[in-house]
From TrEMBL:
This is DoxX-like family protein. The chain crosses the membrane at residues 6-25, 46-64, 70-88, 95-114. Pfam families: DoxX_3. The keyword Transmembrane helix applies. Keywords: Membrane, Transmembrane, Transmembrane helix.
């Protein structure tokens, strides 16, 4: 199995786990708390489920390899946007506080490397 294929499965798994386990199944309640802090309490539960469902859709999109470069750009923008909002509005609710931004930058770098540097062999 090539590095590109391994990273494809890994990146898809990150989106799937965060969407399904953390948000849709609510196994990590702080995700809903973050949504409530940023978007308000009134619709935090359904919005968290909606965000989680969209993250699961991202995992499927990654695995289909449909428009892969556009997909990678969307992923990088989403991760940067979500983490910027969380950094300024909900840092106290993040697993590693403001240091979370480091993991976001590393994940963005991994996505870039996966799609724009490695040979696309899938």
């Amino acid at each position: 199995m090539t590095a590109h294929r391994i990273l494809t499965y890994f990146i898809a798994a990150v989106w799937l786990i965060n969407g399904l386990a953390c948000k849709v199944l609510d196994l990590v309640p702080r995700h809903e708390q973050i949504v409530a802090r940023i978007l308000g309490d009134d619709f935090a539960k359904p919005l968290t489920i909606l965000i989680g469902t969209a993250e699961m859709g991202m995992a499927v999109w990654i695995l289909t390899r449909w428009m892969p470069r556009f997909n990678a750009i969307i992923q990088m923008v989403l991760v940067a946007s979500m983490n910027t909002l969380e950094f300024f509005m909900a840092a106290d609710l993040l697993l590693w506080g403001r240091i979370n931004v480091l993991f976001a930058v590393l994940f963005i770098g991994l996505i870039y490397y996966w799609e724009f540097v490695l040979k696309n062999d899938i």
